[in-house]
Amino acid sequence: QVQLQESGPGLVKPSQTLSLTCTVSGGSITTSYWAWSWIRQPPGKGLEWLGVIAYDGHTYYSPSLKSRTSISRDTSKNQFSLQLTSVTPEDTAVYYCASVIDGLVPYFELWGQGTLVTVSS
Predict the structure, then answer these.
(1) Rounded (5°) CA angle 71-15-7
(2) How many CB atoms within 10 Å of residue 11?
(3) What are the pLDDT digits (tens) for 48-69?
(4) Alpha carbon distance 68, 76 (integer Å)
(5) How far is CA 30 from CA 27, 105, 113, in A?
(6) Is the dihedral of CA 93, 96, 97, 100 positive or negative?
(7) What percent helix, strand, coil does the chain show, rounded to 5?
(8) What distance in Å separates the CA atoms of residue 85 and residue 103, rounded to the nearest whole number?
(9) Best label site of 29, 52, 88, 111, fewest CB within 10 Å?
């Protein structure tokens, strides 16, 4: 019964840092071979993968956003977080956290409900 829940501010001002937290229940984020990702979907556009943190803490980021993206975790709280710096209105999107099952063809297994983050002054 693994569940994921995004949380954080729904409004961020331009040039500031977007910060979101994903709380995982029903399973440990340190379980071997599991990984935890952030994905977003701007209004009217497709899904965009932002990055992932593996069960051992290793991180990987989308090349297009790597310079502005940081994913971290707090194992004591079973949470992982997203920080996106220097945001602009183009960063407005529904942000999702999701679990990843690694293998020959990795896939997203479970998703949070998503949270809309609007970048506006």
Answers:
(1) 45
(2) 11
(3) 999 999 999 999 999 999 999 9
(4) 26
(5) 9, 21, 22
(6) negative
(7) 5, 55, 40
(8) 31
(9) 88
Instruction: Enter the tokens of residue 27.
Output: 């399973």
Q: What is the mean pLDDT of residues 83-103?
A: 96
Return d(Cα 116, Cα 7) in angstroms, integer: 10
Average pLDDT over residues 111-115: 98
**pLDDT surpasses 90 at 104:** no
Contacts of 78 (CB under 8 A, 6+ apart): 23, 24, 25, 28, 29
